[in-house]
Recover the amino acids of this structure.
């Protein structure tokens, strides 16, 4: 298998092939996901919640993401590796360049940042400096205090129109992938059609170009809360490798996410 590139992901969108992504934080799980043919591994700042036990992603540092990126990169040879720039590590373009460089040196192939049009200068600057960028819109967990909780975004027409404008602006600035989190299915479908680049959904229905889940949610082992949009693939299969294969199969054949995992 050859290493997945951003152009391969773009081609998958053109050919209507669904992209399967999952978070990974260590070498052992990264190897399992990589061998299963998962195209994208995300070292998400969700590690603050599922590994460290915080109630938000805000305490996560660049050092944390660097450490877990190094672990994942050592064992994932095929999947594209994306690392999250954590809260306040890209507040200015200069900060985004410095911190993205740390994550790329740790083994990332792309960095992800949360937010809309205000990121245009950083995105353009990162891409000009050789760093591929993934955007993240909708429920952006680093802004949980602004939203007043983990709530579905884009339900109102003006919110939905703003999200589409942000997505187009980020694409124009140079992002090559977009994560769309917790938005109603029709809005996710609109965004996926409006953009040339692949749109990866989480809690955004089945009409996006691919799906991502936090691995602990996909195995039903998150402490406490399991989001409505997730599914426990382990309970159906009883074995981690089979659970990963089932997740990939259901993303590819469009049966996950179903309406019970989606917002309208
Ligand atoms: O941090 C993370 O795991 C993420 C996913 C939820 C997309 O950003």
């Amino acid at each position: 298998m050859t290493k997945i590139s951003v152009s391969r992901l773009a081609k998958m969108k053109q050919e209507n092939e669904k992209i399967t992504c999952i978070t990974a934080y260590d070498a052992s799980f990264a190897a399992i996901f990589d061998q299963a043919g998962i195209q994208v591994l995300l070292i998400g700042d969700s590690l603050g919640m599922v590994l460290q036990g915080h109630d938000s992603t805000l305490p996560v540092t660049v050092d944390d993401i660097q450490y877990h990126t190094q672990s994942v990169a050592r064992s994932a040879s095929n999947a594209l590796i994306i690392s999250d720039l954590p809260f306040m590590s890209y507040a200015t373009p200069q900060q985004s360049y410095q911190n993205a460089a740390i994550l790329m040196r740790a083994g990332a192939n792309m960095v992800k940042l949360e937010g809309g049009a205000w990121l245009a200068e950083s995105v353009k600057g990162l891409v000009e400096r050789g760093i591929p960028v993934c955007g993240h819109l909708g429920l952006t967990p680093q802004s949980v205090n602004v939203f007043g909780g983990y709530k579905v975004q884009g339900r109102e027409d003006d919110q939905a129109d703003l999200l589409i404008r942000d997505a187009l602006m980020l694409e124009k600035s140079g992002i090559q992938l977009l994560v769309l989190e917790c938005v109603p299915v029709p809005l996710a479908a609109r965004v996926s059609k409006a953009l040339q680049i692949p749109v990866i959904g989480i809690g955004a229905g089945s009409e996006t170009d691919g799906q991502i889940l936090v691995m602990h949610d996909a195995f039903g082992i998150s402490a406490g809360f399991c989001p409505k949009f997730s599914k426990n693939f382990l309970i159906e299969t009883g074995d981690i490798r089979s659970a990963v294969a089932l997740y990939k199969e259901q993303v590819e054949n469009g049966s996950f996410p179903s309406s019970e995992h989606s917002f309208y």
Observations:
- The chain has one domain: 6-261.
- The mean pLDDT is 96.
- The first helix runs from residue 6 to 14.
